[in-house]
Amino acid sequence: MGLRYSFSRKRNRFTSLIAMVSMLGMVLGVASLVTVLSVMNGFAGELRHRILSLVPHGYIESADGIADWPALAARVAGQPGVEAVAPYITDKVIFGGRHLMRGGVLTAIDTGREASVSRMPAATHPAALAALEAEPFTVILGATLARALGVAPGDRVEVTVPRLTVTPLGVFPRSKRLRVVGLFEVGAQPDTYQAYVSLDTGQKLFAEPGRVGGLQVKTADLYTAPDTLAALATALPPDLAVRDWSQTQGSLFRAVKMEKIMVSLLLLSVVAVAAFNIVSTLVMSVAEKRRDIAVLRTMGASARGVMAVFVAHGLGLAGAGIGAGAVLGVLLATYIAPVTAFFEGLLGVKLFDPSVYFISELPSSLQWGDVLAVVLASLLLSLVATLYPAWRAARIAPAEVLRYE
């Protein structure tokens, strides 16, 4: 009976219009929420793929450096859950280009082992890696950093490291001109500040002969890396510090997660407004159906039964809107890239400039758990919205309505 009230063509036209507007609001709210959550998932996935591809799952470090690092690397590689280990030295430096100076991070790597712990070797030309290992005092720069410095492969950059050189003329910061042998690009923030040299060059620049700053560790699973490294820390000497990616990069992903939650709450308010528009629809339906309600009560219908009819009436309207919105949202989330490409071609503009946003199209990752959560939250809001009008319908006294009939 409630569903017949929802979709009957014999209703008052104004009541039908209000019901249609409420249902369309629900469609737009649910579709927007599903689409935006999928895009947020896509951005988080892009960040995870691009940034964490350069960031090892964990680090083992020592304040004084690690001298016998091959033995320690072999010991760590034999621990459960550890797939690969590679040495490194890293520190903040100042790069000097043709026209400006810029801060960045210089990391010395073992080019033979680096591919086992990060995607950096895959992001540059193999010849650049070979030149980095074969020629001393060479460097591979992030593509964006190189553009900012105004240098290209074959040019030289001045690198000032946080070490001091004592000379008869005084104490000076250590500087060295390095030849650029290649660029790397992952399409993320590291392109703007990161640079790499060989391990031998790094040991000379940072005055660490025979020593490394630490070991990079790759585990079997990115998401279980914190537990794996916590267990590894108990098996290592106490003077070695063990960190995982959630400690070095976790704040970024927590910020993305928080942003997703806040955007979800804001868009859920659109669904809430559409849901509570159902209140006005039901109030008008109750006023329109007063005689029907009185007849039902006279024939023996309980107050609870009348209330259930109007709850079903409201949920019928809401369910139709939520179902259509969920389908539309899934379609938009699945085909968001072609849709944005169509509008870019139609308007003749580029919505996402890769040099600015590191992406050329909207990423989207549809997760059915998000769709289910949106549908359930929308149904819950709709149920709450139907309770008061249904309660008012249940309180209608049949004698008052039928007195003048």
TrEMBL record:
Keywords: Cell membrane, Lipoprotein, Membrane, Transmembrane, Transmembrane helix, Transport. Residues 266-398 form the ABC3 transporter permease C-terminal domain. Residues 20-232 form the MacB-like periplasmic core domain. One of its GO terms (cellular component) is plasma membrane protein complex. It is a multi-pass membrane protein. GO terms for biological process: lipoprotein localization to outer membrane; lipoprotein transport. InterPro entries: ABC3_permease_C (IPR003838), Lipoprotein-release_system (IPR051447), LolCE_TM (IPR011925), MacB_PCD (IPR025857). It holds the Pfam family FtsX. Signal peptide: none annotated. Its main location: membrane. It comes from the Bacteria. The chain crosses the membrane at residues 21-44, 261-287, 308-337, 371-391. It is found in: Cell membrane. Belongs to the ABC-4 integral membrane protein family. LolC/E subfamily. NCBIfam families: lolCE. This is Lipoprotein-releasing ABC transporter permease subunit.
